[in-house]
Amino acid sequence: MMSYPFSLPSSHTHYSIINNMATVASACLPSYIIKKPLGFHPSNLHNKCFSKSNASTSTLSCKASSSSSMVDFDLYDLLGIDNSCDQSQVKVAYRSLQKRCHPDIAGPAGHDMAIILNDAYAILSDPNARLAYDKEQAKSSEFKGFTGRPIYSVWCGSESEQRAIFVDEIKCVGCLKCALLAEKTFAVESVYGRARVVAQWADSPNKIDEAIESCPVNCISVVERSNLAALEFLMSKQPRGNVRVGAGHTAGARVSNIFVDVEKFQTRFQEAMEKANKCSKETDLQRESRMSAIQAIRSISNWLYWQTPRTSSSSSKSEKGMTRVVYKLPEPDISKLRDAVARKKVRDRTRTKRQTPLNCIHPEEYWTPSTHALPSSTRSTTTPTPLEKPSVTTTGQKKTNETYENQNSPIRWGLPMVTALTAVVTVQIHAVESTRELQQHVAGSLALQIVNSSWLQCTLAAATWYMIGMAITELVAIIGNRNR
Amino acid sequence: MLYFKGIDFCSSITRGKFEEIDMELFEECMETVDKCLTDSKMGKGSVRDVVLVGGSSRISKVQELLQDLFDGKDLCKSINPDEAVPYGASVQAAMLSEGIKNVPDLVLLGVTPLSLGILTKGDVMSVVIPRNTRIPVRKTQVCCNLDNQKRVPFSVYEGERARANDNNLLGSFVLSGLPPSPRGHPLDVSFAIDVNGILSVSTEEKTSGNKNEITIINDKDRLSTEEIGRLIQEAEKYRAEDKKFLRKANAMNSLGYYVYKMRNVLKKDISSLCSKEREKIDYAITKATNLLDDSKYQYEVEVFEDHHKELASFFESIASKIG
Lengths: 484, 323
Fold this sequence. Notes:
The complex is a heterodimer. The radius of gyration of chain A is 55 Å and the shape is rod-shaped. Among the domains of chain A are: 75-143, Orthogonal Bundle (Helix Hairpins); 154-245, Alpha-Beta Plaits. Chain A has 18 helices and seven strands. In chain A, the strands form three sheets. Chain A has a two-stranded parallel sheet. A two-stranded antiparallel ribbon of chain A has the order 3-7. Helices cover 64% and strands 5% of the residues of chain A. The chains are: A mainly alpha, B alpha+beta. Chain B: Keywords: ATP-binding, Nucleotide-binding.
């Protein structure tokens, strides 16, 4: 943006100021809108359209925050933290205060407190804004105690007089000559034994001139009256030693330093005062509510700070509290999860009970065909032994069909056992009925022994029909898979 | 099992097919999570726990995507997703009630979902409270009036677009009875949002003490959650267009302000200027005024900027003569 080269009348000075602010902030905003946030948080810091560099942001933030900090309070003191702490400590302090000031906790009285806390946290949690605020704090601290009026001397000269007497106390050796020659104007302060002006122009000009000339180190000078207050203020901050002990004197350059510093001090103070005037534009009611809220926050912050020395007990309590909070959340869920697990177990038992009848049904149905097999065995008593086997085979086939119709899927170990047991029973019945023994057998002596021995017959029949049952089961399974 | 037009529909579907069909929705969820982190200026590393809330968090693909988004961090599944929301609502109710003991030591900090601002010259949305500002909040902004303006209308908008009319209008009011004053007279506009989300907009003219105020409650003319999301997405989509609009509006406003200043200066002392220079100045001012008044939105931003530079260089040569 270009600066306007024409000069404005004095009555329009504030327009020029507004215009400058508009110029700074006008990268993304029309030039007629000036941001003046209540408190200390310029909205531009978070405006996505703000395309200025960090330096510009810092400048704008300096302007905004300095007026607040000078007039109101220290953000670090407000949160109860040190200005050198890190971001996590800022967050902890903000949250602990918000837990007591938030309207949800403190009611309507907490409204203003929460607003100020949010503004303070918005500045201190942003590294750029915090850096700008710290710089402004450093600037403001040099003005603490400065009232714009002289600290030590009272004015006894005429109102039209524009000169003042000033003693560079660093150079003073405490010879007491000026105090003796112009005893109303000069005095010796008791702490360090150096001379100081206590009443401007209280003696006659001749006596004052004589006192100035009598100074062996030329530390008394005549200055502008408008600079007197600043000079005395700056002198009061200068480090010095006790002249009685004979401490070293500052070099002669000190004189030029303090007189050069006073010009810079005046310039900076004028700028700060201008910024402070801007802040006074806000409504009186708003200021009153804000000041009362600030006092409330400070009292709470002091209370928290006072609690801090009991670090061990309070920290352990807070840890327990946090632990309880952590435990409280999952507790109900755990018990309900346990209930769900218990319910699942009940369901599993129900399923087990349902499955048991299936197991019971199978043996019954498998045993039913054996009653049918008995009549056919009885009929075949009169026939020779080779004819009995085909009838047993037919019975097995019938069993297979019944099994497939009754059950969708056969139980693999069930069928072979059934067939084997059936064969054993059949052989036993046949063995009981037939009493005569064969004398000869075509197969040989081994076959003859098997036929004549009843237990060998049972074992052989069981093994044979078990194998047959297994084969039938596998065949049925294969057919079932193909059908699917 | 689905029930559609009286017909019960039941079918099986594979996990892969289901994930393929819903992948767009899943990715939209991940974008929402990522945007939430961006808005709060938090990195993924600063998230301590990822808590699953809601029935959809049981979908294994959703959990897998979330875990990938947080670089393999274990998800917190100890909280029942169906009960987390009513549990939180109960805690909040306990905090708001008096006389209840054993309330957890926590507080719910709300933020504004959209930016709030007023309509300014050139249909520009001047943001007073930006998005995601913690509530309660109160901010004051200074705006200027025009020459001898006796009444100033204020329109309150919410949204993320640079052009005010593209946002949602919440309400408007007029500050009247202003004393005659030159252009640039300051007016204070205060925005205040309380913890219940109620917005109060007030304005005051300091010299005469004239005030006006409007209160906008939460359920009236406000946007729903879906509309808020849509507005934010639209702001992302039209970001380039909004930037262009802002640049043009700023150029127009700065040119108009410059012309206004030149006119005021020339009213005072022009005796040192010859008639030729006077005619040149009048012609340049008239041209600029025509640019601003007629066919406002047809010219490109470069036209206004070029004319501003022309006026500035022209005036610099004259300023030395005026002294």
